[in-house]
Amino acid sequence: MKKYLAVFKINLLNSLAYPAELVTRSAMILLFMWVFFQLWHITFAAAGSDTINRLTLRDTMWYLLLAETLELGRPRLARVVSEQVKDGSIAYLLNKPYNFLLYQLSSGLGESLPRMGMLFILGGALVWVMAGPPPDLVNWPLALVALAGAWLLHFCVNSLIGLSAFTVEEVAPFEWIYQKLVFILGGMLIPLDFYPAWLQTIARSLPFAYMMYGPARLFVLPDMQLFIQILTGQLFWFAILGGLLLLVFSRGMKRLAINGG
Amino acid sequence: MRELKFLIALWKTNLAAAMEYRAAFISQSIGMVLNDAVYFAVWIIFFNRFPSISGWQLTDMFLVFGISASAFGLAGLLFGNAFNMGDIIVSGRLDYYLSLPRLTLLHVLASRVIPSSFGDFLYGFISYFASGQFSLVGLGRFILSVALATTVFVAFLVLVQSLAFWLGTGGVFTNMAINAMITFAIYPITLFNQTAKVILFLVVPAAFMGAVPAGFVKNFSWSTLGLMLLGAAGFLALAILIFYAGLRRYGSGSAIQTEV
User: Fold this and answer.
1) Rounded Cα gap, residues A107 and B202, in angstroms
2) A81, B105, B196, B246 - which has most CB atoms within 10 Å?
3) Which of B48, B49, B53, B173 to mutate to test binding with chain A, by most A CBs within 10 Å of its CB?
4) Distance from CA of B204 to the nearest CA of A (A)
5) How many interchain CB pairs under 8 A, A with B?
6) CA–CA separation, A193 vs B49, rounded Å?
7) How far apart are alpha carbons B223 and A30 in whole angstroms?
8) In this predicted model, what pLDDT tens digit does every residue of A215-260 receive, in sequence order?
């Protein structure tokens, strides 16, 4: 465990080493949140109501902020892992005394946390000014637990896509489509509450809703029943995707051919 | 004419090189078409729930998305290095182009093809056909709009990437510029106030990549065509001017590098 903590710390410090770059990279969220505000501000005005399916404009903006923070802040592990597989540098990670997947998890988390923090601070400041203060602090713990679960699910899918480089030439299309499925079925650009009922049912029966909608919705309108439902869903999908990841990794190891180095 | 022949020869070579990895080219192109289609579904869901936003409807989104996607794709297919010219400048890889007797900017830009761009280019046309606005004359206007939108987009990328001559870094700004351009281009322009619209015409010229050409495809007007031509010519001239101004500051360590 200590070695993974060390990997986490190294990547955390690495991400914090260039604060100006961290801020500049995170500044992109300002643009997105500003555009979202323009869209939803006019949409709520056009709807002629303060709430749409129980969400106010303020709720919608904080929902979108959390979703964007997760999307922009999660590490691009699929690309990293697939490059390691394709250029053979995976060999240098496999012969070290640690588990490859736990290494990726620790390094990804170390890279991700400062970025997510900065995204939330910058975007949050703008949303606060435009739409109003954040949800009550009592809402945050439930959302944070769900956020951790969502991050883990993203880690599993990203690693699976990266490891698919063992069998396919190019993994980028999988990554694009996965990202767009999260956009739609995860409710990243539009809260799932605004979807037609049939599409909500489909979305809630797939893992994407637990990767994005769950934590964002708990952040703005928390309730214990929803929390239990989301946590159960996350555990269910983590068991499936995590199991699949272990299977693909062990099969990939059997296929791996290292020629010198 | 000589430069045009060179450009065509370069594009043929790029295409041949891309087709060397045929499976990757095809899979990336199909992947990108699916990617764009799934992304657009967000707008279908949105306009299904809220049919009109300040007079903007789903049909308009099909056109805007179509032109933006095709222009983005065409830029990647014909001028792929526009997306990473900042890195080329910073790493001293302009040396290769400077040592050859061709127009440096044109040569750099056209020396790379991004295979997935074909998917974007293709999807733009699919989106146009799906808009319900199809006609042969309209298709002609769509193609012209894509060409002019591509010019503005590539010129804008050159402007942003040329900052690398002065700043010594390009990556962060390039990503921000591309994201800003795409984000603003594919959102209804009616969302933005007058100040924002001035920015969308003059600073981040997303209006020339989305709303203005979409309006032109929908209804022909000489004034819109004039505006598009002016935008394309203006941004292109500015991009060339800034690139060559920056080039005078360019220095490298004369590292031995190979361009493949």
Assistant:
1) 42
2) A81
3) B49
4) 12
5) 93
6) 11
7) 34
8) 999 999 988 999 999 999 999 999 999 999 999 988 888 777 666 5
